[in-house]
Each structure stands twice: as structure tokens, then as C-alpha cells.
Amino acid sequence: MAKRIAQSSVNWAALAERVPAEQKVHLAAFKIKSDGYLRRVLANPPEPPAINWSVYKQSVPIPGMVDKFQKEYEALKIPYPADTMSAQVDAQWSQVKKAIDQFVQQSNANIATFEKEVAEIKALLPYDQMTMEDFRDAYPDLALDPINRPTFWPHNPEEQLDYVDPENKAAEAHH
User: Fold this and answer.
1) How many domains does the chain have?
2) What ranges does the record give for the region Disordered, renumbered to this chain (predicted)?
3) Is residue 165 part of a domain?
4) From 149's CA, which of 45, 54, 71, 128 has a CA 20 to 30 Å away?
């Protein structure tokens, strides 16, 4: 006896949430095909109709022919295909699950770092209330330091003597 499909085991709503917008048309076409197949399967009875062998025994004149057909028909068993892929899918899912867990763990670490940075920024004085000394204390690497790191006006990296343009540096490397 073959397994009977009662209904689609695909959670289409959950699947649709994960499909990118540009592929929703393909998902809809696939769902229509899947639903059509399921309707065709459910339109047929789960078991084939029973054969009335006595009618054939009376109407077929060759003796033993119907008995032979009946014996062969009843011996015929069409096997349900063996599930050879579930183990591979489960193994692949366990690998993907590990990657997902690692990504979530890394993301949570990043979130904690960013929340710490946000808390530090919120703890600072508002920029409109800061003095140059407050800015230097808060951002020592960004603040002007005329004694230890003298710079030329307008004090941006492009105007300094040791500045190398990253785009020209790449171009000079090829020459």
C-alpha cells in the first residue's frame, strides 16, 4: 500500500517570506504547478479499483488465462520509491544550521559592540556644547594636535605632505 498524500506539506507562507522580491513570480509559478499536481493526485482514489475476476472468467474462452492474469496482477507490487535523499538533506541542514548559529553568534557580538559604542556616544557632551579640549579628550585620534602632529590648514588628510591618494596609488602600482 502506497503512502497517501493528504495535503501539501509545504508551508508556502513561510517560504514566501524567505524568497527575494525579484523571485516571487517564480515561486508563484512553482506553487501553481505544485497545487495542480496535488489536485491530480487527490482526484484519484488511494487504491486502484478492484477487478471483478469472475466476470472475466465467464467471458474469456481460453481456460486458465484469467487465472494466470489474476495471479500475476496480484503478485505485482509497485514499490514506493525509497527515500535516499533525506539523510543528505539532514546532513546539509546540520551544516547550514552550524553556519547560521555562527552567524547569529557573530551578529550578536557585533550588536553588543555597537550598542556599547552608541552608549559611549550618548554619554558624550553634545557637539554644540563641546569645547576643543572636550573634543580632544573624546576623540584623541581625530582632534588637532599642533604639538605632536602638526598639520596644514584646512587640516584634512588630502592637504598634508605625507598624503598618498589611494586611487593614484593603485594606478602607480600598475606602472
Assistant:
1) 1
2) 155-175
3) yes
4) 128
Mean pLDDT value of segment 53-72: 85
Which residues lie below 8 Å from residue 127, measured CB to CB, with a gap of 6+?
135
Q: Is residue 18 part of a domain?
A: no
In a domain, 170, yes or no: yes
Q: How far apart are alpha carbons 70 and 85 in whole angstroms?
A: 36
Consecutive H or E run containing 137: helix 132-138
Place of cell 505544485: 34
- Evaluate the CA torsion angle 65, 69, 75, 76 in order and state its sign: positive
φ/ψ of residue 149, rounded to 5: -135, 75
Is pTM, for the whole model, over 0.85? no
Distance between CA 138 and CA 151 in Å, rounded? 20
What is the per-residue pLDDT across 86-120, written as a single tens digit (0 to 9) for each?
A: 889 899 999 999 999 999 999 999 999 999 999 98
Give the mean model confidence (pLDDT) for residues 19-41. Answer: 90
Q: Which domain holds residue 138?
A: 132-174
Q: Which residue has the cell 547550514?
A: 96
Average pLDDT of 46-56? 83
Distance CA 140, CA 155 (A): 15
Indicate whether 94 belongs to any domain. Answer: no
